[in-house]
Amino acid sequence: MSAARAVTPALPLAPDETVLLGSLAGPVRAWSEPDGALRFRDGARIRWRVHGERGWQRPEREPSRRRRTLGGTPVVEDALRVAGGDVRVTAYGTTTGLALEVRNASPAPVAVAFVVTGPAAGPVAEIPLPVGRDLVLLPGRRPAHVTDGDPSADSRVGDRSPDRGPDRSPDRTLGVVFPLSHRSRLRVAVCPVGAPLRDGVEPTGPEEAARGWSTLLGVTGMRVELDDPDVMAHLDRDRAALLLDPDPDAATVAALEQWGFDDAARAGWARLGLRDRLTLGRGRITGMPRSGSDPTPAGRLLDWGHRLLADTGSRRAPELAILPGWVADPGRAVTVHDAPTRAGRLSFALRWHGADPLLFWEVTGPTGPVRITAPTLAPGWSTDRPSGEVLISRPGRVGGSQARRAGA
């Protein structure tokens, strides 16, 4: 079966959604929170503000703000309405850390501030700006101001005096302010201390990062094609979150295994504690949460996996139930590529001939005989052919002559 895959659209985020950001080849993970802040593993946060004709605007207080991911990938864009246009702030992972890109799409100049709050990490130089204990913020240009505290908390934006000395409090808040002319762009990087990033300019843009994720998710692990592009985008974003999870638990490792991310599943298993290993050892995938009981990306993907495929039987006599939890509404098509099973990689597709379902399947790399069933579409039907197709005269009964003609 072809693994061609449509590009999923931009996906608006719900008001309470958090998105895990990073790059598989990068050293930094952060969570894009509902208020627009980036939260890092040590508790440090980066917030942003925009100063326009209305004064300072904070995204968490602005009803005009819109938030979305690009193409269902872990690339998050916030758009804030200012002076006849938008200021767009996009956060995404790169091979050196994270990047924040600000685009002033309005006809007027603005000022943009990044506000960093987190554990103090020794004396503070103006640039690079410390982000927690292990990271720094590197801009592509020198800021107009570096401030103690959040510049939007005061109507005056002044220079930070270097004579004040280091702040000894457990947490520190610092701000950097940049002017941004109309129709222009600013990009800053967040990377580990000492990272070799020339002048703080991160060469990878958000569109390139989103394309990279779309390509990766289109060729890696089990892939699902649906008629609903929004659902596909949600699946993409959850699959990316699995791969980026810095502290996988038993459900995450089970979902990685179920969705065919073998290397990540092995790495996650090596990091599990004894209790989680015993949970997986007893129940494996079938013992994990389902039916919406776990609202995390791993829980949602496990629930989807249970709807798409049941891998039962044994390694010597595998049995694969296709679409055991699928609602067989006429015209509702689905394609699955490279689902991992005991018998090999299973690909299948459900299409419709009028009101009748048409099922295609193929198992590659089989280790021996395999039994294929479709309990929801055709109770009682089965085949031991590793590939084929069958036209079902109506949900629940296979037409005899049609089944024979399809070789089932």
What's this entry about, in short?
With 408 residues, this protein is α+β, with helices and mostly antiparallel strands. Helices cover 19% and strands 35% of the residues. The chain is elongated, with a radius of gyration of 25 Å.
Give an account of the 3D structure.
19% of the residues lie in helices and 35% in strands. It is built from 7 helices and 25 strands. It has helices at 206-219, 229-244, 250-258, 262-271, 274-283, 297-308, 400-405, and strands at residues 11-12, 19-22, 29-32, 38-40, 45-52, 55-57, 66-69, 76-82, 85-93, 98-104, 110-119, 129-131, 135-139, 145-148, 171-180, 185-192, 223-226, 309-313, 318-322, 334-341, 344-353, 356-364, 371-373, 382-383, 387-391. The strands form 4 sheets. An 8-stranded antiparallel sheet has the order 1-7-8-9-10-16-13-12. Strands 2, 3, 4, 5, 6, 11, 14 and 15 form an 8-stranded antiparallel sheet that branches. Strands 17-20-21-22-25 form a 5-stranded antiparallel sheet. α2 (229-244) packs across α6 and α3 (250-258) runs antiparallel to α4 (262-271). The model is unreliable at 2-7, 155-168, 282-291 and 399-408 (pLDDT under 50).
Helical amount among residues, as a percent range? 10-25%
Q: Separation of termini?
A: 18 Å
Work out the number of β strands. Answer: 25
Structural class, by secondary structure, is: alpha+beta
Report the biggest beta sheet as strand number plus sense, adding barrel if it closes. Answer: 8 strands, antiparallel
Question: Might you state the CATH topology name of the largest domain?
Answer: Beta-galactosidase, Chain A, domain 5
Q: Radius of gyration from the CA trace?
A: 25 Å
Taking strands numbered 1, 2, ... along the chain, how are they ordered across the largest sheet?
1-7-8-9-10-16-13-12
Q: Please report the first level of CATH classification, the CATH class of the largest domain.
A: Mainly Beta
Continuous helix count: 7
Relative strand content = 25-35%
Shape descriptor: elongated
Count the domains: 2
- The oligomeric state of the chains shown is single chain
